[in-house]
Amino acid sequence: MFFKLATVAQRHQFDEIIDVRTPAEFAEDHIPGAINCPVMSDEERVRVGTLYKQVSPFEARKVGAAIAARNIARHLDEQFARHPKSWRPLVYCWRGGQRSGSMAIILAQIGWAAHQLEGGYKAYRHQVLEDLATLPQQFRFRVISGPTGSGKSRLLAALAAQGAQVLDLEGLAAHRGSVLGRLPDVTQPSQKRFDSLLDVALQAFDPTRPVFVEAESKKIGFVSLPDALYGRMHDSECLQLEVPLAARVAFLKRDYDFYLSEPERLVTQLGFLRNVHGKAQLEAWAALARGGDFDTLVGELLTSHYDPLYLRSQGKHYTQAVQPLTVPALDDATLQQVASQLAG
Fold this sequence. Notes:
It is a single chain. With about 350 residues, the protein is an alpha/beta fold. It folds into 2 domains: about 5-130, Rhodanese-like domain (Oxidized Rhodanese, domain 1); about 140-344, Rossmann fold (3-Layer(aba) Sandwich), CATH 3.40.50. Helix content is about 55%, strand content about 10%. It is built from 15 helices and 12 strands. A 5-stranded parallel sheet has the order 1-5-4-2-3. Strands 7-8-6-11-12 form a 5-stranded parallel sheet, with helices on both faces. Strands 9-10 form a two-stranded antiparallel sheet. Helix 6 crosses helix 15. The N and C termini lie far apart (about 55 Å).
């Protein structure tokens, strides 16, 4: 063997991490910081897999080797030619098999200290799941709770600006956690990618300092929180924001201004509440949206839908250590003042 093996724990010791899987595999998830230099495209991998099943493994390997050689040559010309002899790359594929082996052996024969990740992405994924099952127990969370529109995410941002440790779950999930929480023109990460991003975030925290996090459901859009984190959050101290209704309405109008400029998009999203509120109510809300009466619409959505939902949820969660926190307004100055008190 011309190249050496490295473990997942050793991945930080290398100058560059090279993911040789297909672009689709890379997009679903990858080791943080890795670059994608596929030895086969998505279409080429399908072609080789079909040959393997329908003709023979030998024919598949012949075609696959030729494809890999062409792609590796291209990466050598375009991606790797600038690297000095001292460059130390770590190469991985799905299981640490032929795809990464073919790349690693050529890089090693050139003279670079190329290593192959033992077990490939699968080993990395196993480590992420192990981390997410154990890391949450190391931290003291302070959970920011409150009804919809109480500025929880903005308070987290203010806390981060004060130097506090903040776990922004909605930011990692690219979703605001409600029926209207989908962000315009933004695709949520896959579950695997969300897990990887969450693992990186948790690894960066100091266990001796508190971590502020927003109260969330088990699912944020299409991704789910790990059981260990979800359980740890529910065992933690909870700060419940108390904000005047008028301030919440004004805040939501600012925070969801993209719906105000496209009322039909808002009407479409409200359609997901049909089983809860019925056709007549949704038609009334649609009329308010199309008529531009967003003060009334947002106020009714809060009092008729979101607040009752929140109260029912609060009756089941965060019941042991709830501390009320009055926030008279949701302007930047007020949130910074509250954050300063909490962070201090």
